[in-house]
């Protein structure tokens, strides 16, 4: 498996470099040979760009590697591929600008420097961005489609052995069976259960006990071992990992998220004493500053672009029902501090005067006729860009909850309060995966904590893109 993965990575590196060089030359042709745009400073010779082309081919794999584009996984989605290519291409341009500037200053002769031998047209860089994204993402999509067709035909499948027969193991088996295009084939289960039915689950056999793992791995030519055991079998889990390591196969442990969930652990030191911070989050320091800059920039642009639609919405709200245009509601944000969340009012004034705090429901009788449309299209959330600009919220993060409900959930749902380690968001990983509104709190926490642990700029961009695609049309948007 390791060899196949290395070969696929080498293929992608080579293909990315070739596509990048071709896109760079094609960008020159589009800019200078098509006559679509005027050329006020004259046309540089093609040879000048051909000389820099290998440098672009060298930079692209480096930029993609920094972005994680070569961490190949069969569970990787098309959206993951797109953002890896998108951000990797932008990083290539940044490195290219720095590299050509360095060569211009330190390597070019005075004559060459005066002639701008290492200068690249800004429009060429812009054309390169579009052409390279289209070419590289298109190539990856073709490779993905080819591999998926092979997997569906039963070729190149990874043989998976599942340790455990509980609900978690069955859930994993369901996912693999439903998504054969990922390229996995479950050969069966192993567990120390005493059940007599050796058909296992969904026709998959129970092959033996946990102690038989080493023999079964050899006999069945297993490629990957998935361990889905309860926490009280921790020592057996360690034994399985040791067996997998000896047989040089991949082993993946799937914890029961609600029983065993912490944020990213970080090794610290107190005067020589090692400490493990089990609730460390990547969103602090420089990362927090980057996210804040994104929030200010994007929320400012959104408020400017959406000012006219928001004025129209405000006018319709005022014209169709009595009461304030904006609805202020206390929510809990970063570190459990309350703030006033803004929304366009979608219900009648004092809608909770008789019921107290309750969840909104489909066809909620408290909602106005226009308010139902606002909630269905998520337009009632638009004023929260002001919350983002003021620093109460972020564009992406766990959705803020009302203190009344927080008090109910904090003792009932494990790890619930960890979601307040970061700012609340207008949208989040849970929301774009369907866990929005009156849905499972446990699943929302699972996705929220995954986001907090795995935050990155690319992850935020991915969530924002998925929000545009899916969130406004989700069935729980009421």
What's this entry about, in short?
This protein has 16 helices and 11 strands.
Structure, explained:
50% of the residues lie in helices and 11% in strands. α1 (2-32) packs antiparallel against α2 (46-67) and α3 (78-106) crosses α16. It has 16 helices and 11 strands. It folds into 3 domains: 2-152, no CATH class; 158-253, 3-Layer(aba) Sandwich (Rossmann fold), CATH 3.40.50.20; 286-473, no CATH class. Residues 257-261 have low confidence and may be disordered. The protein has a 5-stranded parallel beta sheet with strand order 3-2-1-4-5, with helices on both faces. α6 (167-178) links the parallel β1 (158-163) and β2. It has 478 residues and is α/β, with parallel strands linked by helices. It has helices at 2-32, 46-67, 78-106, 110-115, 122-152, 167-178, 213-219, 234-246, 286-305, 307-320, 369-376, 384-390, 403-412, 429-432, 441-453, 457-470, and strands at residues 158-163, 184-190, 206-208, 224-227, 250-253, 266-270, 273-277, 326-332, 338-344, 394-396, 425-427. It is flat and about 75 Å long.
């Amino acid at each position: 498996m390791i060899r196949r993965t290395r070969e696929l990575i080498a293929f992608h590196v080579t293909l990315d470099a070739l596509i990048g060089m071709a896109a760079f030359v094609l960008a020159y042709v589009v800019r200078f040979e098509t006559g679509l745009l005027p050329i006020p400073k004259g046309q540089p010779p093609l040879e000048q760009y051909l000389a820099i082309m290998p440098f672009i081919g060298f930079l692209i794999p480096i930029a993609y590697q920094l972005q994680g584009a070569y961490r190949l996984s069969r569970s990787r989605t098309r959206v993951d591929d797109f953002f890896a290519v998108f951000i990797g291409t932008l990083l290539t341009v940044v490195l290219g600008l720095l590299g050509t500037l360095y060569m211009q200053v330190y390597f070019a002769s005075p004559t060459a420097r005066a002639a701008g031998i290492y200068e690249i047209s800004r429009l060429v860089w812009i054309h390169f961005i579009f052409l390279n994204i289209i070419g590289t993402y298109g190539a990856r999509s073709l490779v993905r489609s080819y591999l998926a067709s092979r997997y569906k035909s039963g070729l190149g499948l990874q043989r998976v052995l599942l340790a455990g027969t509980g609900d978690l193991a069955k859930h994993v088996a369901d996912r693999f069976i439903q998504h054969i295009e990922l390229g996995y084939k479950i050969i069966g289960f192993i567990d120390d259960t005493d059940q007599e039915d050796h058909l296992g689950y969904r026709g998959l056999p129970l092959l033996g006990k946990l102690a038989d793992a080493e023999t079964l791995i050899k006999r069945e030519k297993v490629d990957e071992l998935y361990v889905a055991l309860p926490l009280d079998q921790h020592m057996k889990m360690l034994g399985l990992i040791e067996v997998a390591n000896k047989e040089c196969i991949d082993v993946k442990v799937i914890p029961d998220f609600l029983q065993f969930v912490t944020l990213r652990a970080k090794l610290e030191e107190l005067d020589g004493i090692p400490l493990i911070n089990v609730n460390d989050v990547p969103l602090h320091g420089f990362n927090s500053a980057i996210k804040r800059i994104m929030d200010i920039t994007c929320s400012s642009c959104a408020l400017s672009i959406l000012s006219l639609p928001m004025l129209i919405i405000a006018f319709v709200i005022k014209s169709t029902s009595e009461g304030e245009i904006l609805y202020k509601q206390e929510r809990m944000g970063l570190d459990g501090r309350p703030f006033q969340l803004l929304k366009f009012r979608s219900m009648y004034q004092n809608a909770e005067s008789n019921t107290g705090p309750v969840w909104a429901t489909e066809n909620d009788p408290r909602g106005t006729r226009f308010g139902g449309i606002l909630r269905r299209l998520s337009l009632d959330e638009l004023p929260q860009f002001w919350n983002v600009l003021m620093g109460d919220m972020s564009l992406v993060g766990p959705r803020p909850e009302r203190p009344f409900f927080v008090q109910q959930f904090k003792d009932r749902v494990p790890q619930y309060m960890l979601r307040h380690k970061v700012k609340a968001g207008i949208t989040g990983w849970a929301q774009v995966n369907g866990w929005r509104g009156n849905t499972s709190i446990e699943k929302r926490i699972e996705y929220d904590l995954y986001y907090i642990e795995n935050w990155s700029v690319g992850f935020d961009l991915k969530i924002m893109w998925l929000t545009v695609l899916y969130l406004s049309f989700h069935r729980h948007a009421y």
